[in-house]
User: What shape does this take?
Amino acid sequence: MIHLAATGRAHPDPDVWTEARLWAGQMLDSPWWWRIVRAVVISGFAVGGVAATTGVAVEFQADYAISIAVLTVAPLAVLWARRQMRTARLINRVEPAEGNPRANPRWVPIVLSVVAFAAMATSVAVIVHTVQVNHEAVFGCPFEPEHPDVRAAWIKHEGKSGNLGCPVGPGGVTAGGEPFQHTTTGVFAITSIVGEFLVPHDLFDVWQTHWKVLGEPTEVPMLDGSTMYVNFQRGHIVKTAGGQSIAVPGKDYQQKQVAGGPCTTHDRPCLVRAERNGTNIHLAWHWEIADAFNVSWRVPSQIVPTSVEAAGSEYTIDGVDPRARYIVEVQACDKRFLRRSVCTPAATYIITPVP
Assistant: This one.
């Protein structure tokens, strides 16, 4: 159609050509303000769609998602509006529409370009501001950990805004000669068996006091309902909610909350079935309606788990080691438009190998 009109020829199909002439007449006869409003409104819907898609799929911050959408849509909207007007003029030039189409003020495309440029400039400023805020969220502490390995792990876990928080006071070495750093959320150490290890301050102090008896941790801190515990080479430390940390030499902690057992907490999903079959673990849980469930798993020596998002109340983990214990966590989440999801606390369970 455009190629034919550009060479001064009508479309060979009379019905198509009639529809094209009617469309061109409507475009050229519409008032200037309507053309601007039309372009802005359609662009606004496109921005909202792109922002919502990126915000939900990638969980970008709302201002970041909207800014990216504006930078994507604005130039395309200007080109689309100019192309439509050019096409309408070409069709009308071949066979002018009846009546007297309104003249298209020369400043209308300029207004659209200025609006698009202003929107894009604002979006760039928002993105720059967001990057600065995110940088501050990581590196915004008064100082950083001194030990290079601790600092690298601290940055990996998002620094100030992550689960380690800001460093508090100078770093040091444990009774076993491994680096540690006091932070606002606890004490972070890099141990010989577990690697990255984060515990509350009082639990760390009990460990150091009983280091010769307990040895090194063999897994990261775990929750059994409201009880926190850590297993060591020669015993464990247990800390009840609101209580003190107590060292128990000679044996590992025995998990009381098990899959398929009674549901003792009601603020998170309850794992009712965990079946191991070779390299697979099939999980099933009870919970009310949720948009999605976060399922994560790791061996006891890992601090960072593998995570997936499940749509229903069952999930099968593939490729596990049949001989290893696994720590499984399940969260129920509700998604929000252009905001991060709201999730329940994680329900934590130990999945032991089949005897």
In short: The radius of gyration is 31 Å. The first helix runs from residue 2 to 6.
